[in-house]
User: Fold ABC-2 type transport system permease protein from Paenibacillus algorifonticola.
Amino acid sequence: MRRLLTACSVEIYKLRRSFVLWGTLLFIMFIITLFLGQPDWPSFFEKIAFLYASVFGLMGFGLITSWTFGREYSDRTLKDLLILPISRGNIAIAKYNAIVFWCFVMMLISFAYAVILGFVFGLPGFSFASVQHYLFLILTIGALHLLISAPLALLACISRGYLVPIGFAFTTLMLALVFGSTAIGTYLPWSVPALHLQESGVASFPLAGISYFLVFLIGLVGFIGTVKWLQNREQR
Assistant:
């Protein structure tokens, strides 16, 4: 357990030093600033929630996941990583923990930034209930995106880099935008974060219980597949 905790702290530190993490956060904050011209707080929060349900989640979290696993191949540091006195499975778990930690930190920072912007520009209709509602909604959407980003780590390991998983993330974004409002979207895991907005009244997309199961399933397959790949393949 101690070795796993040490590996998690190392991966969190490595990701904190990454330009990809902070570049993604700056991009998110820039886009939020562009959507500031809304009539009131609820409309502003609705735009941010939809952005997290689409571009921010699929591409933002996808980029961080792809880079975290793929950089070890592109920088040729994987061999050095695998000789450390820790199991390969724990290395994968540590990387996943670092991704989850920093993605939630990004959501909290960007949401706080949006609240500060709203106060600075004097948006009307503020309420603590609205802040609580949309913060919880965005965090829930983020959790769904972290699950569907798990297969990107496996693709990074298989392709030995981050270009293939990033391309896959962009493809899934296009699929979600095209099929999300159709009957197919109900069974397309990458559309589920946007479908989840139906519960808050932000969007009107069809949603079924199986949608959440498919998100959980694809996340589980991606996680287990990545752990097994590192355990069985990289020792050769």
